[in-house]
Amino acid sequence: MTGGGKRPLARRLTLALAAALIAAAALGGGLAADRRASPRLTSAVRSQRPTPVLASVAARASSPTCGPESASTIASVDRTVANGIYAAEIHSPEVNADIGHITGSQALLSALASNNTAAVYEAVHTIVYTPRWHIVRLRVVKAGRVVADVGGPYIIAPVSGRLRSSGRTLATYVMSVQDDLGYVKLVSRFIGVPIDLYRNGSFLMGTLQPAPSKLSAGATVRVRGTSYLPQLLSARAFPSGTLRVALFVQEPSRAVSAESCPAVRLSAWGSIAMHIAARLQPLQSHYQDLVDVLHGTTGGPVYVRAGSSRIAGGAAPARLPRHGIVRFGGRSWAVFSWEPAPPARIYFLTPLS
Question: Which of 9, 102, 200, 316 has the fewest CB atoms within 10 Å, i.e. the most exposed one?
Answer without folding.
Answer: 200
